[in-house]
Design goal:
With 222 residues, this protein is of the alpha/beta class. The protein has a domain at 89-155. The chain is 29% helix and 26% strand. The protein contains five helices and nine strands. The protein has a five-stranded parallel beta sheet with strand order 6-7-8-3-9, sandwiched between helices. The protein has a four-stranded antiparallel beta sheet with strand order 2-1-4-5, with helices on one face. Strand 4 (62-67) and strand 5 form a beta hairpin. Helix 2 (95-105) runs parallel beside helix 4. The chain starts with a strand and ends in a 12-residue tail after the last strand.
C-alpha cells in the first residue's frame, strides 16, 4: 500500500502560565491508505495533542508531518476530526443538516447533491429514521454515529478519531466499534484512531503504535 500520512521526528510543546510542556518528543510513524491505525497509550501521554497536530490545529516545535506528500500547515478538508464529546453537533440543526453542513460550508457540493450524500452516509450508520431529529433527542451513541457520518460524508483522505466511544457504556461502545468496522469493510477509508486501553478496541485496528510516557515509540503490535 502507498503511504498517505508521514509523521517524522515530531516534537510538540505548549506553554502554560508557568512552564513549557512537552506533549510528544520525536514521534515518527506512517499511515498507509486504508489503514486502521491506532495510537495507543495512557492518559496524558500526548496522543490527542498529536492527533490535533495532524489535523493542522497545532504546529510542531520540531519535525514534519505530510499528507499526500504535502506538508501539513493548517486544517483542511482532507482531514476530518471526530471528538469524544457528545456536544460536537450543532444543536439548532437536524441530524441531516448537521451532516450536510460541512459539505455546504466548503462548497464541495450543491445543496441537492449534499443532501443525497448525507442521506447515504446516515444510512450506512443506520440513522435514517432520525434524519429530522435534533441532537438533544439522541442518545450518546447516536450522536457519535452522526459525527462519524458527517466526517465520512466529506470523503476525506483520513478520518481522525479521538477516542470517540470513550464516554459510552460498554455495550454501546462495542456496538459502535462493530458498526465502524463493518463500515470500514465496505468503504476501506483510512482512519487514525486514539485510544488509551487496548481492550476497548477488540479487533478494530490493523496496526498499533504504542505510546509509553510522552515519547512515542515505533513498535508495531499487530
Amino acid at each position: 500500500m502507498s503511504t498517505l500520512l508521514n509523521v517524522s521526528g515530531v516534537t510538540l510543546r505548549y506553554k502554560t502560565s508557568s512552564v513549557v510542556v512537552t506533549a510528544t518528543e520525536k514521534v515518527s510513524f506512517s499511515v498507509d491508505r486504508s489503514d486502521r491505525f491506532v495510537l495507543l497509550g495512557p492518559s496524558g501521554c500526548g496522543k490527542s495533542t498529536l492527533l490535533k497536530a495532524v489535523g493542522g490545529y497545532l504546529k510542531p516545535s520540531e519535525g514534519k508531518m505530510r499528507i499526500n506528500d504535502r506538508e501539513i500547515v493548517d486544517p483542511g478538508a482532507d482531514r476530518m476530526m471526530i471528538f469524544q464529546e457528545f456536544d460536537q453537533l450543532l444543536p439548532w440543526k437536524t441530524v441531516l443538516e448537521n451532516v450536510m453542513f460541512p459539505l455546504l460550508m466548503t462548497r464541495r457540493l450543491p445543496r441537492r447533491e449534499a443532501e443525497q450524500r448525507a442521506r447515504a452516509y446516515l444510512e450506512k450508520v443506520s440513522l435514517t429514521r432520525v434524519v429530522d431529529s435534533y441532537p438533544h433527542t439522541l442518545s450518546g451513541g447516536m450522536k457519535q454515529r452522526v459525527a462519524i457520518a458527517r466526517g465520512m460524508a466529506m470523503e476525506p483522505d483520513i478520518l481522525l478519531m479521538d477516542e470517540p466511544f470513550a464516554a459510552l457504556d460498554a455495550l454501546t461502545r462495542r456496538t459502535c466499534q462493530d458498526e465502524l468496522l463493518a463500515l470500514w469493510e465496505e468503504t476501506k477509508f483510512t482512519v487514525l484512531f486514539v485510544a488509551w486501553m487496548r481492550p476497548r478496541l477488540h479487533h478494530w485496528p490493523s496496526r498499533f503504535n504504542t505510546a509509553p510516557s510522552v515519547k512515542f515509540n515505533t513498535e508495531w503490535l499487530v
